Amino acid sequence: MDLKNLIREIPNFPKSGILFRDITTLLSDPESLHYTIDILAEKCLEFQPNYIVGIESRGFIFGVPLAYKLNVGFVPVRKPGKLPAAVYSVTYDLEYGQDTLEMHQDAMAAGSRVLVIDDLLATGGTAAATAQLIEKASCNLVGFGFVIELKDLGGRQKLPEVPIVSLIEY
Ligand code: PRP
Ligand code: MG
Fold first, then answer.
1. Which ipTM was obtained for this model?
2. Model-level pTM greater than 0.90?
3. In the annotation, is 9 catalytic?
């Protein structure tokens, strides 16, 4: 199955000059959704994670079914102010301004094997910040999984030296 055919391309969104890769067309097609989760699971099984860490919000869409399929726990990394208990927090630079991500301090025992899932690897800022959260929690980052990777933006180079799975490359 060629997943690329199911990613809709929207020119000039969210701003002029950007070609947006829209996963909603993949998600609404039952066969493609099944296939995406199955192939992610197949490629990520060997990392033997204890937890899937999914990044708000599109990382939740793929992270939870993957955790269910691999029979491991799911831990959300959230935008600031959303998690109720004590959090680790990482602030990172964007093209314009900064962003912050948070994770519950007690979500995973130290030393847990963690696989990070998101829909998209673009500049790598979001995934790199998540790797820092996992380090703060003294957990063992074993890999990253993305549905889409935008190669030209060089996100991979920003990430720690662990295996990176991406299903669709542009
Ligand atoms: C998008 C995407 C990734 C991130 C990738 O999330 O879902 O999480 O950007 O970009 P980067 O590699 O340059 O950091 P966004 O912040 O738009 O929010 P959303 O997931 O809530 O839609
Ligand atoms: Mg996102």
1. 0.99
2. yes
3. no
